[in-house]
Known about the structure:
Oligomer: heterodimer
Largest sheet of chain A: 2 strands, antiparallel
Helix content of chain A: over 70%
Number of helices of chain A: 19
Order of helices and strands of chain A: HHEEHHHHHHHHHHHEEHHHHHH
Radius of gyration of chain B: 22 Å
Shape of chain A: globular
Number of strands of chain A: 4
Amino acid sequence: xxxxxLVLPEIFISLSIMxxxxxxxxxxxxxxxxxxxxxxxxxxxAIITINETFSVSRETLFNESVVIDSMSSLMKIITLxxxxxxxxxxxxxxxxxxxxxxxxxxxxxxxxLGMMVMISSNDLIVFYMGLELxxxxxxxxATYNRDQLKSSEAGLxxxxxxxxxxxxxxxxxSLVYGFSGSTNFDIISNxxxxxxxVLTFGIVFILVGLAFKISAVPFHMWAxxxxxxxxxxxxxxxxxxxxxxxxxVFIRFLYVPFLNLIxxxxxxxxxxxxxxxxxxxxxxxxxxxxxxxxxxxSIGHIGYxxxxxxxxxxxxxxxSIIYISIYVVMNLALFSCLLMLRRKDQYxxxxxxxxxxxxxxxxxxxxxxVILFSxxxxxxxxxxxxxxxxxxxxxxQSMFFLxxxxxxxxxxxxxxxxRIIKIIYFDxxxxxxxxxxxxxxxxxxxxxxxxILLYFIFxxxxxxxxxxxxxI
Amino acid sequence: MNFPILSSLIxxxxxxxxxxxxxxxKEGNNSTAKYVALFTTIVNFxxxxxxxxxxxxxxxxxxxxxxxxxxxxxINYKVGVDGISILFIILTTFITPLCILSVNNSVKNRLRDFxxxxxxxxxxxxxxxxxxDLVVFYLFFEAGLIPMxxxxxxxxxxxxxxxxxxxxxxxLLGSVLMLVAxxxxxxxxxxxxxxxxYELGIDAKYQNLLWLAFFxxxxxxxxxxxxxxxxxxxxxxxxxxxxVLLAAILLKMAGYGFIRFSLGLFPVASEVFTPLIYxxxxxAIIFTSxxxxxxxxxxxxxxxxSVAHMGFxxxxIFTLQQQGIEGSIIQMISHGLVSAALFLCVGVVYxxxxxxxxxSYGGIVTIIPKYSILFMLFTLAALGLPGTSGFIGEFLIxxxxxxxxxxxAVIASLGVILGAAYMLWxxxxxxxxxxxxxxxxxxxxxxxxxxxxxxxxxxxxxFFGFYPDPLINTIEVSVTDLINMHNxxxxxx
Lengths: 472, 493
């Protein structure tokens, strides 16, 4: 008998989704209660995850198609926390647009379920199932503000392009299956060797599909449009949670089934990394919409996490995970600020709207200052340490070119972050924004900013958690 | 373990800044904020004086060392001082209260935020001079960009945005290569602890590249020709207190870095690249002196003179002679006092006339005599008149240079003459001559706080000019040891 306790989080969250759907259908005006119950469900799932799986070093279930190890449990917890915070700060935004409906929490929960399946998948089929579950939920979320043209456009674009990438991914999977005779990662890992050239196509297709999901250059085209068009809270969800899940799968693919083929994929990852870092830095300079700018900056940040992956070492993987965790916190903080730019039921998204913010809202501006300098990677803020660990791992493998290009692109990226700071601090002020924000929004901004600001006092804790992850 | 005196030096200004954050200032009345800031920095100065008194001058070992695990198995938070760094710490704690005193007139709006920025800046600057771990050093070195960027950008002049960006991006670009080098050192030598690295030494085949990476950062910060162009912009646009911090302390970080890291860690590479430094220094001295001659703007002129003076400093450091290095350190301290004073002098007339152009002044000696006397003193100190601290520095540097390379020394000596030319000409045009501009008659002489600030700077300038022993005694053993270590390293290679 399998130890079902290990998948209890997934079971619990699926049951909650079904219950919430039934509740939503049969009870009128149940938005508020669904929201609260889904928050509760995520919280319990997180607690179960910590209790049941956090101490497990590595176990497999269901004919080794699901794996529970320290990476999967850590990433699941990050996913759950991210989902919880997104849900909790969404309400006032959704109410403003009159889309405060039961579907929203249910969709978020289903996509989280999909991601959790993805994160612990050890089998091509299980992985694909999880991926599609999360993608389908995300398509709907992108169009969630359906009365707005931009939102519908974003959803459609995302659907078409994502379906294409899923197709590529599936094709790659079938090629890999053809060469290895199994869908199980561990078996594939033993069966594959680098002599078969057609296999390289399979790997490339899979990598392209995954690169699309994490929006690495040159498969990033969808990101700016989708990020701009989607409702802001959904954009926040996009920039945080699916990336964590996709990155985990990326790590899993590279270091379990394709471990013996490092020569084949290392150059690809290095290229993706360099292209993303450089493009993300350069393309963000001309943007005027904050959400588009965040899209490009997130492309750049994904480049840095990929740099860690390209090293083919445990330190590299760990540094990538540290990077993405710190990035999630910074993004949460940035979006909390963005959600505070509200005046008379209208949200503002242009960089120009930040003009002179420091005169009327000194505390909010101070938070933004900390967040932006941290995103730019200036010490002693958390963003610096994220980059520092990545480059430490990269230089350990003597990949000097990657390190130097990466660091130089941080200088370019610093320019556009500085530009926002300039607009906030040096320019003329505009009208005041509303200050009656929900408590949760203030809470998430305060906590994330303090984490960023004071990370340097306790840098060891995060490393300790992550250092248990030994994939290779 | 004794009382962590260095950490408290680093932390105290930040704590003061936190206090300031919670003070409430009414419109137009910021006296509370100012007193808090002043109190903090003066206490910090007294602590640093205590540090100097209890400092043991007979050894070159690092003292007051604190060593704590920071990132498990990787970086230790390690701070300590030797004869070289202690002087810079005192310079920092001495200049900062004067900066805060001087903000009376120059900073009109958001004084509290300005003081917070200055206090945080002080923390970072002290941290740079204490750090005994490369990563800790880098952290403080880079972190200083944030407050300085804001000081220039928020409270600066009309072209402040351009200058702030230029300052930030130039420095960042220089520094990222240093980060690569620091991490590489970790992988090559297995530690980033400076004391251990001194003992272990770094494999000679890596030294050249590592040296160049550090050089890229320090050259921008010094600034050396041809990457000096951010400095005049930053100085001209920054508010007076910002210029003072920039000239007096920020530029010294690089000189300090050259001595501590470039010489100490990469002895072989330092020998290899000495001609490069000589060339750039001599160009800086001669070329920027000529540029300084042509300036119309007083602040710009002093900014270029800073570049020339820092040229002397880099020249002196890489003579690798006892006199040269000691001269460089004294020159840095002296330049810290004198350039601070000169920027404050410009600030004084700027606050009254709102012009920095030389040609809008002239003949003010009869209107504001006290000011003219003090300005005269600092002008003479800047050109290195015997009896001022500037002389000691330049003299020792040239002495070291003559021992090492006659030609370079001769050319550099020409720079002294040029320095006298542009400084005296500046003084003549501003203070003497005919009183053409009628508005100048309305000017009033130094008020109490200005008088206090400038006298505070004048006293050490003259004192160390006549009696440099306290400085030389403090640094002597450390410098001797540095050179001995360098020579043994070279000999063993």
